[in-house]
Amino acid sequence: MRTWRIANEDVALDRNCEGARKSGGHWHMEGCPALYSAMTPELAVLEKFVHTEGDDPTLVLVAVDVPDDPELGIDIPADRLPNGWDDLEDGGSATAFGTNFLKDCKHLYMRVPSVIVGEGLNLVINPAHPAYERVKLSIVRSFSFDPRMFNRKD
Question: Where would I find the RES domain in this sequence (predicted)?
């Protein structure tokens, strides 16, 4: 299954997920590594866009190929997520939920709704899972945001 992410080129192929481990994220606490990807390149663009101040010439589009084995993943629909999981200022419910998923290490990934577009799906991939060695990361091409995304006029 091919999924997508936008990343800085110097860390795009970092299989250890050091950036995520150091900073934490919506679905995991600091100190716990995780790899996030989106089911479509368009959603990957939006996910990166909301976390950036402007275009960055070092961005790349990364294909994240996950083994095509449905037993390796778990789908978590919105109604099975804790209250507040989609709040922009989440009080920690999504972080605790995702961290528990990662620590349990029962599945390679969980597929969750996007906070940005609820109908879109993202993966939280666990680098500690034994099947992670079969996840392939590859840079597809350089990436830059359309300049109109930053220069909106009222």
Answer: 14-139
